[in-house]
Amino acid sequence: MPTQQSFATGSACPELEAGTLRVYSMRFCPYAQRALLVLTYKNIPHEVVNINLKNKPEWFLQKNPLGRVPTLEKDDRIVYESAICCDYLDQVYPDNKLTPDDPYRQARDKMTVEVFSQFVSDFQKMMSSPPQEKPESLQKIKNNLCEFESSLTARQGAYFGGNAVQMLDFLLWPWFERILIFAKVVPLTFSLEDYPALCEWTKKMPECPAVQKCRLDPQQFLEFYKSTKAGAPDYDVPKTSQS
Fold this sequence. Notes:
Elements: E1 22-25, H1 30-41, E2 47-50, H2 58-63, E3 71-74, E4 77-80, H3 82-92, H4 103-128, H5 134-154, H6 167-182, H7 196-204, H8 209-213, H9 218-229
Parallel strand pairs: 1-2
Antiparallel strand pairs: 1-3, 3-4
């Protein structure tokens, strides 16, 4: 993952050379990681500018009024929202195509992403809610994991894309990477071992070169998570000796 220092309120926007594709990112953001995975997999030349999402630069809000990453910029064109960015990249740079050609498979993948959005919301609630509120979120998470397990099994391959990594794999992977990190240090009250196909998928995905290049440093991520929970997110957590 990129390690450039993040730009905050009051900073000047770095000059963008004509013809250069820039992605505005944040080192620990799973949504930004989606776009970085696609860029890396498709070998698309690009530069990364990291954003302090708590104290966003004024110039960034002018480019993206929602103030979210990832945001793509090239010449006079700006694209934002992670799934839209990934789809845009796959169309503009058609080599190593990630989106299936079949309309039904495209629709099925988009439905899975919608279900996954709810899964992410429930997981975040479980991680931040008091103990008495956790059971409801946990049950929703388990229901979603059962759906993902069935979906993956039906695709008759190691990946959500079947026998090869496709867009859906990259759209889902960043959160599972984080779950695997959390599972080593925090009791999650659920285990991916209960979902054999999903568990095998989480072991297979790190074999993908793009995933290797965009992987999180667990220690860095946990330091960032701690700072976020304390109310002062450190977007510039230094590299560790393992980085």
